[in-house]
Structure formats: C-alpha cells, structure tokens
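Hello,

Our lab assistant flagged a job as stuck in the queue for most of the afternoon. It eventually completed. Since we weren't sure the result was trustworthy after the delay, we are filing this so someone can double-check. Below is the sequence as submitted and the structure that was eventually returned. Let us know if re-running is recommended.
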Amino acid sequence: ELDGEDVTDLPLDTSKGDITGLRVVLTDRPAGVSGIVRDASGAVASEYLVVVFADDPVRWEHGVYSVFTAGPDQQGQFTLAGLRPGTYRAVALAGVDLADARNPELLERLRPLAEAFQLREGQTVALALTLRAVS
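-- returned structure --
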C-alpha cells in the first residue's frame, strides 16, 4: 500500500527520489479459485483455458498479479491459488493462446461473458463455468 492505495500492480516512479509511506502487506492466507468447465452439451470439457482477471481494467495493464490462467487437470478441473482478495471475473475459453490471455483488448471483450465473483482473504471460491469460443 502507498498512502492507503493498493499499488501491487502499478509502476512506482522512483526517478524523483525515495518513496515514503510504502507499506508491505504479507499474508499466510492466500485466496484461490477452483472449479469445472462444461461444454454446451453439459459434458465436462477436457481442453480449455480459464482466464481469471481483476474486475478493474486499470490493473490489467501492469498486472502480473491481476490476470491468471489455468488449464484442466486429468479430471477436467482447474485450480488457481495465491490470488489477492478482491473482485474478479472468470471465463473458460476454447481456442485461445496463453500469450493472448493477458491482452487488455481481449479482456475487455471477455468482460460481459465472464462470471464476476468476490474473493476474501483465505477463501477459495468454487466455480462452474461454461466453455466459450472467442471470435
């Protein structure tokens, strides 16, 4: 935090000298998300990329801690751990390259398709997502 604002995903300008008022917050209770993805017929999907991203678009630009991706395990489930508390959106996609998943333009197009959810410290949210194709 810098002066009460979360700056984890934002660049800090150190060209003008030292930064004062910076507070580092650590936790041993990370949040996470897990779930399953089904296709349009209701069958468990076996090939997909889940994209979980911060609801606030400002965080996408520099957000190493605001856009997360996961694929299926052998049972078709996904798990993401180590997320910070906050409001996120999640969407399961077919035919999307991992490198494209962090593109702010793509994330903006995905916002209306993605399920919104809230994470609190130490909480793991379970989601049931429907596989979507990106055009």
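-- support follow-up --
The delay was a queue issue, not a problem with the job. The result is valid. The mean pLDDT is 87. The beta strands are 31-38, 49-54, 67-70, 77-83, 86-94, 115-119, 124-133.
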